[in-house]
Design goal:
Blueprint (H helix, E strand, L loop, with lengths): L20 E5 L3 H13 L3 E6 L2 H11 L3 E5 L8 H12 L3 E5 L4 H8 L5 E4 L4 H34 L3 E5 L5 E4 L1 H7 L3 H4 L25 H8 L3 E10 L4 E13 L5 E10 L1 H5 L1 H12 L4 E5 L5 E4 L1 H7 L3 H4 L14 H13 L3 E8 L5 E12 L5 E10 L1 H61 L5 H32 L2 H5 L2 H16 L3 E5 L8 H22 L4 E8 L2 E8 L6 H5 L4 H12 L3 E6 L5 E8 L10
Parallel strand pairs: 1-2, 1-3, 3-4, 4-5, 16-17
Antiparallel strand pairs: 6-7, 6-10, 8-9, 9-10, 11-12, 11-15, 13-14, 14-15, 17-18, 18-20, 19-20
C-alpha cells in the first residue's frame, strides 16, 4: 500500500507575517483545493493539506497552525473525530469540523473533542469566514484567560496569605511558607494530609464542630464552584492553640472537565475575631447613615431601629418595636431564603442574602440584608444586629438586562430562520422560473435546428421569424428573472453608486411594487459612506418599508438621508396608523430589534416613535467614522 507522507511546510514569506495559519484536513482533493483558495482570498495562510488522520497529526506538529479545518469523514484508521482528539491532546490546536452529514451520534462524539464550530457541506465563503473568525476569537480569549489564571496563581504565591493545593481526594499536594507558618507545620508534614481530617478539630464561629462535608475543599469539589470567605477555627497540634482563618477555595479543571486540584487560600483573622463584637457595633454605627439597621433580642424581637430602616419600610419606630424580625415577609417571599434565615437563627450564626419584603403600604421591595449574632465576654448571645438595604432598582435593572439577552437570543434564532427561508426562496425561484424558461429556450433551439436542416420556403421563413421573435422575448424574460434575483440578494447600485442612489432606487422600486408614493431625499453634499455602514442603513430602510406594507396602511412614505456634525441622520417617515407603545415594547418584534442592533453595531442610536400628526418615524443616527464591524445580513 502506498504511504502518504505530508509535504514539507513552505518556507515563510515576509508578506505572510501576521496571517492566521490554517491546516486543511480533507480527503477530497478538489474540496481541499477550493477551501485553500478561499482561505488565501480571505487573507488567511493555508499551511498544508492532509488527507488522512495520521498525516494530519504529524503535519499539525510540524506546521503549528492557529486552527485546523477537519473533515469528519476521513479514510483510514483514524476518522476526523479521532484525529481532532489527538491534535487537541498533543498540540492544543482548535478544530472546526467539516461534514456533509448531521448524524446525531456522530455530532455527540464530535462534541467530546471541544470543537470551535461545525460547517455543513457545501458551505459558502461567508459561512467559512464567520466560522473562522468566531473560532479564532474564542481561541484568543481562551489563551488570555489561561494567561490570566497563571498570573493569578503566581501573584497568590507572593501574597502574605496561606496557600495550599489539594488533590481531588482532599489530600494536600503543596503549600506555601505562609500556610506552614499559620498551620504550625512544615510543608513535608502537611503534604499528604487530608484537609477534612478530624484531627484538625475545625469549628464554626459559634464553636460547634465544622463537618467535613461543609469544608470549603469538599464543597468546591462537590459543587465544582469557588467557595468564598468561610470562617473557621483550626486547632494546631504543635502549639496546642486555635487559629481563626478566613478561607477561600477555587477548583481547577482538566481539559476533560474533571477536577485537577483545589487551590485554598486563607488569612489569619484571629485578632479580628477577638475584637469582633465591638468592631461590629462600630461598623453598624458608621453604616447607619445610609442603610437600615435593626437590633433584636436573642428571641428575635425587635428592640431598636434607625431612621433609615423607618424610611425603607414605612413603619414608625413605635409600630416596629416588639415585632418579630420576620414581620416584613409576605406571600411572595422566597420560602427557601426564609428557611435559610431560620436555620442561621437557630444556630446563632451570621447570615447574608436577598429577600422579597413588603412595606407598610403593601408595596414590595427587594431587600439585601445581613444580620449577625453578638455575644458577651462569656460567649453568651446578647442580641442580633441586622443591616438592610433596598435593592429594588438594581434587581429591576437585572431583569431588564435578562430580557434584553433573551431578545438577542430570539433575534439570533430568527436570523437563522430568515437565512434558511431566503435560501429556500432562491432555490424555488431558480427551479420554478429560470429552469423552466431555459428548458423552453432549449426546446425552441432544437426545433429551430430541425427546421433549418430542410429547404426553406416563404411560409417557413415566416414561421422561423416568429419563432426567433418568441425566443428573443423568452431570453429577455429569463434575463429579467436573473436580474431580479440578483437585485433581491444585493442591489448592484449599492456597491457601484453608493448609499444615496441605492436609497433612491429602493424608494422607486417600493412605489412601483406597492403603488404607495415614496420619495427619497438625499443630501447633495453627502460624504462617502463606508461599505459596512451603507449596507446596514440600506437594510434598515428595507425593514422599515416592509413594516409599512405589513402594518402601517400608509398613503405616503418619505426617506431622508443627511449628514451633520460628523454624523449620518437617516429617517423613514409614513402617514399611516402609527406604532403603539405595546408594539414598541413587544420583545418578539424581531424587525425592530434588528434595526436597533444594526445601528448599535455602527456605534449609532435608533429612535422609533409615533410621528406628530399621525404615522410612524424611524430615526437612525450613526457616526460617519463607524467602528469596523460586519453588517448583519
Amino acid at each position: 500500500m502506498k504511504r502518504h507522507h505530508p509535504a514539507p511546510p513552505p518556507a515563510p514569506r515576509p508578506e505572510d507575517a501576521g496571517k492566521y495559519r490554517i491546516l486543511v484536513v480533507e480527503d477530497e482533493a478538489v474540496v481541499a483545493r477550493d477551501v485553500q483558495m478561499q482561505l488565501s482570498e480571505m487573507g488567511y495562510l493555508p499551511v498544508g493539506h492532509a488527507t488522512r488522520g495520521e498525516q494530519a497529526v504529524t503535519l499539525a506538529g510540524e506546521t503549528r497552525p492557529d486552527l485546523v479545518l477537519m473533515d469528519i469523514q476521513l479514510a483510514g484508521g483514524m476518522d476526523g473525530i479521532a484525529t481532532a482528539q489527538a491534535i487537541r491532546t498533543r498540540h492544543g490546536i482548535p478544530i472546526i469540523f467539516l461534514t456533509a452529514y448531521a448524524d446525531d451520534s456522530m455530532l455527540a462524539r464530535a462534541k467530546l473533542t471541544d470543537p470551535c464550530g461545525y460547517l455543513l457541506k457545501p458551505f459558502s465563503e461567508r459561512d467559512l469566514r464567520t466560522a473562522l473568525e468566531m473560532a479564532l476569537y474564542k481561541q484568543k480569549t481562551d489563551a488570555q484567560l489561561r494567561a490570566s489564571e497563571e498570573l493569578y496563581r503566581n501573584l497568590t504565591a507572593q501574597l502574605q496569605v496561606g496557600v495550599v493545593i489539594h488533590a481531588p481526594d482532599t489530600s494536600i499536594i503543596l503549600s506555601n511558607p505562609k500556610a506552614a507558618e499559620l498551620l504550625g507545620m512544615s510543608d513535608d508534614q502537611l503534604r499528604g494530609r487530608s484537609s477534612i481530617d478530624p484531627a484538625w478539630n475545625v469549628v464554626r464561629t459559634d464553636g460547634t464542630p465544622f463537618p467535613g462535608t461543609e469544608h470549603p475543599v469538599a464543597v468546591a469539589i462537590a459543587t465544582r464552584r469557588p467557595v468564598r470567605d468561610v470562617e473557621m477555627g483550626v486547632f494546631r497540634p504543635p502549639t496546642q492553640d486555635r487559629v481563626w482563618l478566613l478561607v477561600n477555595a477555587d477548583p481547577q479543571f482538566n481539559p476533560d472537565g474533571s477536577i485537577r486540584q483545589v487551590i485554598v487560600s486563607f488569612a489569619d483573622i484571629t485578632a479580628r475575631k477577638q475584637a469582633e463584637g465591638q468592631l461590629r457595633v462600630n461598623d453598624v454605627v458608621l453604616r447607619a447613615v445610609s442603610q437600615g439597621v435593626f437590633i433584636t433580642s436573642p428571641d428575635r424581637q425587635i428592640v431598636s431601629v434607625n431612621d433609615a430602616f423607618v424610611a425603607i419600610t414605612g413603619y414608625a419606630k413605635t409600630e416596629i418595636a416588639g415585632k418579630d424580625c420576620h414581620f416584613l415577609q409576605g406571600p411572595l417571599t422566597d420560602p427557601r431564603t426564609v428557611s435559610a434565615i431560620n436555620l442561621a437563627l437557630r444556630h446563632a450564626v451570621e447570615f447574608s442574602g436577598e429577600i422579597y419584603n413588603y412595606r407598610k403600604d403593601g408595596t414590595a421591595f427587594w431587600n439585601e440584608f445581613t444580620f449577625s449574632p453578638v455575644r458577651d465576654e462569656h460567649g453568651q448571645l446578647t442580641h442580633y444586629i441586622g443591616v438592610t438595604r433596598d435593592i429594588t432598582e438594581r434587581k429591576r435593572a437585572e431583569d431588564i438586562l435578562r430580557a434584553s439577552r433573551e431578545q438577542l437570543r430570539a433575534f439570533a434564532q430568527r436570523l437563522q430562520v430568515i437565512r434558511e427561508e431566503e435560501r429556500t426562496r432562491i432555490a424555488r425561484e431558480i427551479h420554478d422560473v429560470l429552469a423552466q424558461e431555459l428548458t423552453r429556450l432549449k426546446l425552441d433551439l432544437a426545433w429551430l435546428g430541425r427546421r433549418i436542416a430542410h429547404p426553406v420556403d416563404e411560409g417557413t421563413r415566416t414561421e422561423l421569424a416568429q419563432k426567433l421573435s418568441s425566443m428573443i422575448e423568452l431570453a429577455d424574460v429569463t434575463l429579467e428573472s436573473v436580474q431580479t434575483l440578483a437585485t433581491d440578494l444585493r442591489p448592484v447600485v449599492l456597491d457601484s453608486l453608493g448609499l444615496g442612489p441605492a436609497l433612491e432606487w429602493l424608494a422607486e422600486d417600493f412605489q412601483r411594487r406597492t403603488g404607495i408614493p415614496c420619495t427619497a431625499g438625499v443630501a447633495a453634499a453627502l460624504p462617502p459612506v463606508e461599505r459596512a455602514q451603507a449596507t446596514a442603513l440600506f437594510r434598515i430602510v428595507q425593514e422599515s418599508l416592509t413594516n409599512v406594507i405589513r402594518h402601517a396602511a400608509a398613503k405616503r412614505v418619505e426617506v431622508t438621508l443627511a449628514s451633520e456634525h460628523g454624523r449620518l441622520r437617516l429617517e423613514v417617515r409614513d402617514d399611516g396608523r402609527g406604532i403603539t407603545p405595546e408594539e414598541l415594547e413587544n420583545p418578539k418584534s424581531i424587525g425592530l430589534l434588528g434595526m436597533r442592533e444594526r445601528a448599535a453595531l455602527l456605534g449609532g442610536e435608533t429612535e422609533i416613535a409615533p410621528a406628530p400628526g399621525g404615522g410612524t418615524v424611524v430615526r437612525v443616527t450613526t457616526p460617519l467614522a463607524a467602528p469596523a464591524a460586519a453588517p448583519l445580513p
